[in-house]
Amino acid sequence: MQHRKRKLLSTLWVALTATVVLNAQEPGEDKWGAWYMYFGTNKIAERLSVHTEAQFRFYETTSNFNQLLLRTGLNYHINPNAIATMGYGFIKTDGSFDEPLGGLDGREHRIFEQFILKNKVWELLFEHRYRLEQRFLELGNATDTQHRARYRIQMTLPLTDTFFLNFYDELFINLQDDLFGQNRLYGAVGVHLTENSSVQLGYLRNQFANAVYDRLQIGFFFNPDLRKVFAKKAKDES
């Protein structure tokens, strides 16, 4: 009798634990999520600028945190239409939803190398971004090192001096295991707030091998020339 009671309690405990786990790992694919983003290109010399970036990603528009992404890098402006970058990123992921790390909390240190080419066709502004990434992952109690290549083609169409449209498609290629990583298709309406700042409101379709996620994106872009800030500060102090 005692043995049967213990067995029943064990069964109930397993069932309860499974229910909690399943509820905690809902598929984020069923949610309309949101990414809130900041991007900056901060000029510090004639050919040098600093890239700054912060992204806060949610499974739902204002709740259920998914991912924090912080990235920085040093840009070398070869000419107005060509930029080479080397940088570092830190990514922290909450695995409550099964995206994309299989329900595991994760931390990532990432080194990246990047090359951007720009060109103009009629009124359309094109940007080609090539990026290599070395990813040092901590997934639960396991660690892993992965390598990835990314290519993004972006097109910007000015509508007026204030408003513009922005579109891009970005392909992620794994350099180990399965070749296809993900594909991001994006469209947005943008507003120039000042000469060096703008806001974009857009939609991202983020496709993985076995899932597709719909994400609202709100991005703020601020590109100050820090040389002017430093010059003004030096003048005020003189």
TrEMBL record:
<keyword id="KW-0732">Signal</keyword>
<dbReference type="Pfam" id="PF10677">
    <property type="entry name" value="DUF2490"/>
</dbReference>
<protein>
    <recommendedName>
        <fullName>DUF2490 domain-containing protein</fullName>
    </recommendedName>
</protein>
<feature type="signal peptide">
    <location>
        <begin position="1"/>
        <end position="24"/>
    </location>
</feature>
<dbReference type="InterPro" id="IPR019619">
    <property type="entry name" value="DUF2490"/>
</dbReference>
